Amino acid sequence: MDPSLTSEDMYAFFNNPANGNICIHSSDGKHFYLQRSNLEASTGAFPPAGFEMQPGEVTKLEEPATVLVVLFQFVCARRHPDLADIAFDLLAEVAEAAEKYQVFSAINTCFFRMRDFSQERPAQVLVFADKHAYPKLVQEAAVHLACLPLIDVVEALPPYLLIRLVNYHNQRQAVYDGVLESVLNAPRHWRWDSTTPDMCNACSAGLIRNLCLFRIQELTDAIIIQKLEGLEDDLQERHPEADCQGCYYQNMLEEILETLRNDLPAIKFNP
């Protein structure tokens, strides 16, 4: 928000009858005076269905003052807040109210701020994004949510989203199971200085270990791919006195990376 204006400052402004010809009553008993013309120009669904707002009348809304004092800053002819310092729980409430009343300038700001929380609060962001039809945000939140054990997110999602997450999670796991199986089934030899194009046991074991380790660390696909790319130099660390050119390790690693880069982005959360 604008650092020069606190919530108390803004409420004092909104609570002044001289600043509006419409009175809004919050769910916790606070009054907000707004210009009807500003509401009509800045929103698409205000007043909500069933309300007939007349000058001098009081219209009661379901949201508390903490939400409305933020939301109504977007209907005033002044600089709008950026919501950079707002706590997530309050942001989520403001975002819901912005969608409900179609406060367009607030909708855009809230969308980008909710997106900033897709990694920290993926379940809540996923619910919001799916409810309000933001498919790209749904996908971003799902990517982070799929990294977590399903038991940790069961209570955070409604059943219809949980079913879709399980399906997304299973498809993602199938990709990783496939690349791990390809390493397990690859021909191997015992010596690192062999001239055959198979993987030596040391390279194979190291690759299997890293694949398993990355999967249990609750990392996103992008980070796993980044870590696997870093393994391209790992061969020299394991065999410092040889280039191991006969080993299929490098080729196998490139095949795994190509599979992950192509197959993981193709998995979509939305049906």
Question: Which keywords apply here?
Answer:
mainly alpha; 12 helices; 271 residues
Provide structural commentary.
A hairpin with a 5-residue loop joins strand 1 and strand 2 (31-34). Helices cover 52% and strands 6% of the residues. The chain has a three-stranded mixed β-sheet with strand order 2-1-3. The chain has a two-stranded parallel sheet with strand order 4-5. The relative contact order is 0.08. Helix 4 (88-101) packs antiparallel against helix 5 (104-116). The two termini are 37 Å apart. The protein has 271 residues and is mainly alpha-helical. The protein contains twelve helices and five strands. The longest helix is centred in the middle third of the chain and has 26 residues, at 159-184.
Largest sheet: 3 strands, mixed
Unreliable sequence segments: none
Globally, the shape reads elongated
Overall number of strands: 5
How big a fraction of the residues is strand? Answer: 5-15%
The average pLDDT is 84
Quaternary status of these chains?
single chain
Q: Given the structure, what is the number of helices?
A: 12
What string gives the helices and strands in order? HEEHEHHHHHHEEHHHH
Radius of gyration: 27 Å
Summarize the structure.
52% of the residues lie in helices and 6% in strands.
